Amino acid sequence: MASPYADTRYEVAVGSHMLVDFGLAIGVRASLGHVSVRVPGEPDKFVVKGRGYRLDTLARMRAEDTVVCNLEGEVVDSPPNIVPCFEVKIHSCIFKARPDVMAVVHVHPKFATVMSVIGKPIRSMVNEGNRLVMDPIPVYPKQKIITTDEEGTEVARLLGQGKVELLRGHGAVTAGKNMEEAVTDMIHLEHHAEMNYYACVMAGMDHDYVSREQVLEFSNSSGSQYDLPHFKQAIAKAGMPQYGGVWQAWFEDAAAKV
After folding, report:
1. pTM over the 0.85 mark
2. For residue 5, with 0-12 CB atoms within 10 Å meaning exposed, 13-18 middle and 19 or more buried, which class applies?
3. pLDDT at 2
4. pLDDT at 141
5. Which residue from 19, 42, 40 is spatially nearest to 31, judged by alpha carbons?
6. CA spacing 20 to 30 A to 120: which of 16, 71, 84, 210?
7. CB contact burial 211-220 (16+ within 10 A = b; e otherwise)
8. Which residues of the chain have pLDDT under 70?
9. Buried b or exposed e, range 172-196, using 16+ CB within 10 angstroms
């Protein structure tokens, strides 16, 4: 009989490899970071990377290596000699506080971590993912790892109803309605942080950025091209484009390594 957690375990393993693919968990950070996904139909359980592997890197993650936990961070199902990731309370406390969240990512992105320490807000610099950074991002003020219920609860409280939080000198957390959203937001966060870093180097700490009004203007215009005469003509001739999005390509590339 197939495990009721098999599909979620596979998804978490693929998400772990995505963090490697985008350079968020490589080199000295090869074992640092974790993706969690709530088990469909069992909202009191989630799957996450564990600790204790003989070769402990996200690039080696397999579906069968993941751990199933409850909302207290306690093990429901685990491989032999494997415990939950040390910061399982990040995941359990966010899931407990936010029934709408189905996936959580914590990792140590290079540029986002630098920005969390120097106290410079990550501002919108490019179109992709710009809504994620158009408002101030909360920062957990301690660098220590999040191991207690009190610490996890405080991380969840600071996140509030938002999607992203920085941990000072320690990385970032994203929370989404599915793994696609949580992982993509982490990728976009680091992309914006890198653009902010370059802007600081080139133009100083008070560099210009894309305003909130401009971000909303861009967002509101997205998709409106189909109302234009030349696009109406193209659709009438060829049919509506069948967008699958870049996510599926990312997923397939990562899945090939699981």
Report:
1. yes
2. buried
3. 62
4. 97
5. 19
6. 16
7. eeeebeeeee
8. 1-2, 223, 244
9. bbbbbeebbbbbbbbbbbbbbbbbb
Amino acid present at 190: E
pLDDT given for residue 202 in this prediction: 96
Superfamily of domain 6-255: Class II aldolase/adducin N-terminal domain (3.40.225.10)
Q: What is the pLDDT of residues 104-141, one digit of tens each?
A: 999 999 999 999 999 899 999 999 999 999 999 999 99
Angle subtended by helix axes 110-118 and 179-203, to nearest 10: 60
* Pick from 58, 55, 47, 73: nearest CA to 23: 58
Domain locations along the chain:
6-255
Rounded to 5 degrees, what are φ and ψ at 45? -135, 150
